[in-house]
Amino acid sequence: MKKLVLSLALTLGIGSMLFAQSNAYQFTDDVVVPHTSVKNQAKSGTCWCFAGLGMVEAEIMRKYNTELDLSEMYLVRWAYANKFEKYIRMQGTCNFSPGGEVFDVLYAINENGMMPNEAYEGLVLGDKTHNHGELHTVLAEYGKIVNKQHNGKISKVWDEMVQEILNVYLGETPATFTFEGTEYDAKSFAEKYPLNIEDYIQIGAFTNHENYKPYIMPIQDNWTNTFTYNMPLDELMNELDNALNNGYTVGWAQDVSDKGFSRNAGVGVVLESNVEKIRQSDVKKYKKMSDNEILASLYKFESVMPEVEVTEEMHQEAYENGQTTDDHSMLIVGIAHDQNGNKYYKVKNSWTSNYGYEGYWYCSEPFVRLHTMFFTVNKEALSSDIKTKLEL
């Protein structure tokens, strides 16, 4: 029965027409990988966990035909405690922030297990949504205090203090919990739906690294120093398509500070700014518009406009000049096209269903090519050619 439900969900997703508030962009889903619902990270810098756990939930759905709503905050606790320890061991010389990467979720589950959200929501202060501003400030300031060694040395109790702070702001974690009539602890629950961390990989495409070799991406949220395997950009995009077409979601680390990423329109685009190219794309539409009027219409998201053809060199330059940074994580769940036939990727965000297309964004192929830092995916989703090149 569960297989039937998943098959119906996948089938119903294909070919459905979706409209955002402005109706400027009209999307038809071509591929939708079964996945769980859109969640809300609210006022917390934990997009990495929502994206990563969304991928884990989709993997459990794919492997075990079971839909789970897992606890993000249980894994956020693990990350905060481990980040804090690294910060102390390195005497405050490394980054301490709420951020992270999709792969951190796999580390957390592998080391500490997992539990359903109903067993641990991480909401104990009376708020209905996550708000970690004070939590992070307290931990960051306490880290500075410990590193100052006021007693002439680092105290032996800092780890206990960190756990107490997390207890105050997120609540104590239950030693055991009951789910569907059976009692578990976090590790036994993870063992019920086992995922092997060795089955997953980060892949990227940067010209300053050797192709088909692993490297450590030098970004602040990669606090675990996870390896990324490099390849040409065209091949990276082919692997994204291969994964989605074969039923695998893809964790996505990328930049959403670009003006082409619209919260209200629910799209991510890289629009062409060359007026002549814009005119040539639709002579009738732009015939009566002046150059200034055309340029003024850019990024108003009132109509579908032509986009830039993003090359590997442009992708590299955007990374090197800071236009592409690692400021958000989301989950890519499908492939779609707009009313003009342009290709997009359907992306599950963690900003509630009140934005975009009921919580989903449609990011154009040029946008993904330009602003991708790396993908996290099951190795099984990779093509045989890339597996051979990466010596997996």
Description:
The protein folds into 2 domains: 1-32 and 200-270 and 307-378, Alpha-Beta Complex (Cathepsin B, Chain A), CATH 3.90.70; 63-196, Alpha-Beta Complex (Cathepsin B, Chain A). The chain contains 14 helices and 14 strands. The protein has helices at residues 2-13, 47-64, 72-89, 102-112, 133-148, 158-170, 186-192, 233-245, 275-281, 283-286, 291-296, 312-320, 365-371, 384-389, and strands at 17-19, 26-32, 177-179, 182-184, 200-204, 214-216, 227-230, 250-254, 261-262, 267-268, 328-337, 343-348, 360-364, 372-378. It starts with a helix and ends with a helix. 42% of the residues are buried.
Write the layout of secondary structure elements.
Blueprint: H1 2-13, E1 17-19, E2 26-32, H2 47-64, H3 72-89, H4 102-112, H5 133-148, H6 158-170, E3 177-179, E4 182-184, H7 186-192, E5 200-204, E6 214-216, E7 227-230, H8 233-245, E8 250-254, E9 261-262, E10 267-268, H9 275-281, H10 283-286, H11 291-296, H12 312-320, E11 328-337, E12 343-348, E13 360-364, H13 365-371, E14 372-378, H14 384-389
Parallel strand pairs: 5-7, 10-13
Antiparallel strand pairs: 1-2, 2-11, 3-4, 5-14, 6-7, 8-11, 8-14, 9-10, 11-12, 12-13
- From the 3D structure, determine the CATH topology of the largest domain: Cathepsin B, Chain A
Query: Count of helical segments?
Result: 14
Unreliably modeled segments = 1-13
Number of domains: 2
Report the strand count. Answer: 14
H-E string: HEEHHHHHEEHEEEHEEEHHHHEEEHEH
**Tell me, what is the CATH class of the largest domain?**
Alpha Beta
Q: Give the terminus-to-terminus CA distance.
A: 35 Å
Mind describing the biggest β-sheet?
Answer: 12 strands, mixed
Compute the gyration radius: what is it?
22 Å
Architecture per CATH nomenclature, i.e. the level-2 architecture of the largest domain: Alpha-Beta Complex
* Average pLDDT over all residues: 94
**Structural class of the helix and strand makeup?**
alpha+beta
What would CATH call the homologous superfamily of the largest domain?
A: Cysteine proteinases
Q: Level of helix content? A: 25-40%
| Multimer state | single chain
Which word captures the global form? globular
